[in-house]
Amino acid sequence: MSDWIIRLIEQSGYLGVAFLMFLETVFPPIPSEVIMPIAGLNASRGQMTLWGVILSGTAGAMLGNCFWYFAARIIGVDRFLPLIDKWGRWLTIDRREIEKGERLFARYGAAFVFFGRLLPTIRSLISIPAGLLKLRLSTFVLWSTIGTAGWTALLATAGYQLGQQFDEVEAVIGPVSTAVIVLIVVGYIWRLITWRPAKQG
């Protein structure tokens, strides 16, 4: 997968980095763990600057974050509730938990968004509940940008420092990302087995 990423970054520079990070946010199988270290490697060769790489990567990812936020906000909770009624068993959620989520996001939305940007898979998905539950746009943008910039800077700097050995970045971050995804899947299966809808009345 990394060959075409290398070519695109070499040919398109900052625009290529931004485009790839936008795709990574909208289509998670394209991993930032590969994109940003490669961009950092190019910066270490003098083809780009490290700050330029970080800013372009953050900008591209934020475009994707805002895409999902506004898409979810347009759909809104009211349109989402019929899906909950029909598929709540498999989503392991009901109307009462949606109401609880609204209260939690109203109180802790900034923290959810910030820390969500630092976790594999969750980085892309956190925009959806933020939009559905109408987290304040300024809060969403601020804390999404801070979290996204932190993650992007970490990966780009690792690639910059390691130079040609950027594969070592993926060797370290790859298993961590896989472990988080496995925990999410195991957690979902456990919740699926144990979940019961709230009693009415």
CA-based gyration radius: 19 Å
Strand content: under 5%
The averaged pLDDT comes out at 80
User: What is the end-to-end distance?
Assistant: 53 Å
Structural shape: elongated
Q: State the helix count.
A: 8
Helix/strand-derived class? mainly alpha
Number of domains: 1
Helicity level? over 70%
Spans of at least 5 consecutive residues with low confidence: none
Number of strands: 0
The biggest beta sheet, please?
A: none
The helix/strand series, from N terminus to C terminus, equals HHHHHHHH
Keywords: Cell membrane, Membrane, Transmembrane, Transmembrane helix
Protein name: DedA family protein
InterPro entries: DedA_domain, VTT_dom
Main location: membrane
Looking at this protein, list some descriptive labels:
single chain, about 200 residues, mainly alpha, 8 helices
Characterise the protein shown here.
It comes from Sphingomonas gilva. Pfam families: VTT_dom. It is a multi-pass membrane protein. InterPro entries: DedA_domain, VTT_dom. This protein has one domain. It is mainly alpha-helical. α1 crosses α3 (50-91), α2 packs antiparallel against α3 and α2 packs across α7. The protein has helices at residues 2-26, 32-44, 50-91, 95-116, 122-125, 127-132, 137-162, 167-194. The chain is elongated and about 55 Å long. The protein starts with a helix and ends in a 7-residue tail after the last helix. It contains eight helices and no strands.
